[in-house]
Amino acid sequence: MRLIFFTLFILISASVSAVDFDKEVKKLDAYYAQSLVDWNVPGMAICIVKDGKVALSKGYGVKDVNTKAPVTPNSLFAVASNTKAFTAAALGMLVEEGKISWDDKVQKYLPWFELYDPYVSANLTIRDLLCHRSGLETFSGDLIWYGSTHSREEVLRRSKYLKQAYGFRSHFGYQNILFLAAGEIIPVVTGKSWEEFVRERILQPAGMKDAKLSITEFRNGDDVALPHNEKNGVNQTIDWVNWDNIAPAGALLASANDMGKWLMLQLAKGKTKEDTLWSDNTAWEMWRMHTPEDISGWRRRLMPSMTFNGYGLGWELSNLHGKFVVSHGGGYDGMISRSIMVPEEGWGIIIVTNNVSSLSYALGMETLDRLLGSKEKNDWGHRLLKNKNDGEIAEKEAALAAEAARVKDTKMSKSLSDYAGKYGGPMYGNMIIRVIGDQLAFQFEQTPLFRGTLRHWHYDTFQLNWGTNMMLPSGFIRFSLDNEGNIEELFVDVDNPDFDFSELEFKKLD
What we know:
- Helices cover 33% and strands 22% of the residues.
- It has helices at 2-15, 21-39, 84-96, 118-123, 126-129, 142-145, 152-158, 177-190, 194-206, 247-250, 256-267, 280-287, 297-302, 359-371, 380-405, 416-419, and strands spanning 43-50, 53-61, 77-78, 228-231, 234-237, 253-254, 291-292, 309-311, 316-320, 323-332, 335-342, 347-353, 421-424, 430-436, 439-444, 451-458, 461-466, 475-481, 487-493, 506-508.
């Protein structure tokens, strides 16, 4: 056994070298600036903290491609799922106060909350909500809340219609809706909303003075970066989408500087100069493995020093180059962020960007490699940029393939007016199809953002074209006929990595 441990020590030592931290940060600064240009991202901000101090705080590029206003370290970005760790910490504080237990049943506080199975509904715990092991598929149900008029309670009530993908507590399945459920326990226990509690108990003590918990809190003159979408190499601003109905899972808007304060609070295990917000025990609960995840072949190939990967409570957990790594990503419309900490080394980094790309992940990995002294030369910025370019080529090829597969000169089975009507199901709600002139128009009734027109493609399939300024690509709607030739259902196909439209049921209602 001694020989094995000695051999492992030698192997790890051979893959890393000592680092001059400040010198390496200066080199990274130049790398960040060039990567922004290479990736065609409008702007970003980065804060690196080390041993309770700021080592780098800087804005790169512009907040808005139209005004060219520069990003500053105080520019607000949507940090999306980085919010989850705030919800976990808030609940940890309530555990320490004896008001709840990690293993309390969710129905003790939300007795009406149900999932796909009575046993799961009755035995689901607060801990289960925070570590993605419910048995639901990754991102399942996100179309219930995204941009919709459904309240938080309505989102949770409709989640009982989501289909089981895995055994309960047997598999990782990333869930936004269950973090919403976790956040909704706070007002039941404290009488304060999730927003009030997080602002009073975390943001203010941490000194995150500019952070906001809803886009409705923006005011004229605020230093705010705008979300962008890149199309055919051109970045365009897109509309903000209100995430209030999923806030505990992703509504936080913060600057790199404020998120740097959050990382310092985390690295200090809940301690500020004036107070202790949570104890070492709670920090340990959030940072210990609750749900293991597979290490993909891609990771095994490019990160051979990674030997475990999984999820704690609101945090992703792994190791790299012999060090424990705590991290999380955040994906919002037109904004992607990444936070990383290496507690043993006392440093952390937050990267916030204002378009949808893997740049924040690439820069995070490059920072880990360099500051941990890796001798592996991955050059993550260029490596993942190639993947991005290859993906764009694949998308164009897929569009050409779809066009080639289109059956020309086919006719619709029915008249346009026959396709019109209301379609829906219990999980999401309704879609309205109308005839406007010589074409069909659609509107997802509970999601004002989801509207546009339908152009006949072939047979009873129509191309879906959005009429709003957002990030989703075009797609297709296929109408299904019953044995009598009447339209009975429609199916939506929009190819994207975040929202599964095939989950939605749209039976014809009239």
